Amino acid sequence: MTKLFIRKTHGFTLVEIIVVVVIIGIFASAFMWALSSFYEKSMAAEAKEILTKAFGGYNRLVVEGESTWGTGSNWSQLGFDWDPNGFDVSRRHFDYVFDDPNNPNTLTATRTNDATRWIMIDLRSGRITNSGFYGK
Length: 136
Known about the structure:
Mean pLDDT: 78
Order of helices and strands: HEEEE
Radius of gyration: 27 Å
Strand content: 15-25%
Oligomer: single chain
Helix content: 25-40%
Low-confidence stretches: none
Largest sheet: 4 strands, antiparallel
Number of strands: 4
Distance between the termini: 82 Å
């Protein structure tokens, strides 16, 4: 009696494993892209919140008749307990500048590592503008 040997295959072929790894890589890159977009939007929201609070503090100073506010003013005058520029540069997302020489009566938040990304509030009107990167 002869035995027929049937070849049993166990596991996956190399091609199948490579295809799965490529598909996982595509999903991971799409997830990271979406996550970075979310991160940028959250940083922009943080900057807008600080700018809006500064605008409220500026309006309070105007109502109280404080006319000396301007370049060199500190954050405590605007009602802040802390200085947004006081963090270490590695932890800070934006640099905040009062009364940029090119834009008087403004408060500008510029990305710490990229000066082309900024958000600015006009302290007289409360209008927030940006470099277009952060959307409306």
